[in-house]
Design brief:
alpha+beta; Pnp Oxidase, Chain A; 147 residues; 4 helices
């Protein structure tokens, strides 16, 4: 199925560069968050306003083939722009290595959110700090592969 259309790179230079290098190398380069050594994935969405293809590197939080998509924006007051893309269209592609795959995302809450939040903080401890400073509950989505 895939996501097709005109790609519009992020206006954040480092994000656009990381996505480009990650995809060009089939996930063998630019596959960690800057200097941390912590692995990332690339999520592709469709812009809810522009209709353009958008790509963003995110921390890799995987469990049994599903992925946590944490809309932290570093604990900023507002959700990241791609949060609105997910709310408008749950179809995404996830690239975790050489080949992207189709997935559907769903916003989670309650006990399921608690379990995935714990996994997310284990994978990337700064999420806990981001939640402490945010005046909003950081949204957490689960991306599940689809055929």
């Amino acid at each position: 199925m895939g996501i097709e259309g005109e790609y519009e790179p992020s206006t954040w230079g480092w994000v656009a560069e990381q996505v480009e290098e990650y995809e060009a190398s089939n996930g063998t380069r630019a596959n960690t968050l800057r200097d941390t050594g912590l692995p990332i994935i690339v999520m592709t969405t469709v812009g809810h306003k522009t209709g353009k293809v958008r790509k963003v590197p995110l921390m890799r939080v995987e469990h049994e083939g599903e992925y946590a998509i944490v809309a932290s924006k570093g604990g900023a007051p507002a959700h990241p722009g791609w949060y609105h893309n997910l709310m408008a269209d749950s179809h995404v592609t996830i690239q975790d290595g050489p080949a992207p795959f189709d997935a559907e995302v769903r916003l989670v809450d309650g006990d399921e959110r608690s379990v995935w939040w714990h996994r997310s903080v284990e994978a990337y401890p700064p999420y806990a700090e981001y939640q402490e400073k945010a005046e909003r509950q950081i949204p957490l989505f689960i991306a599940s592969p689809v055929d």
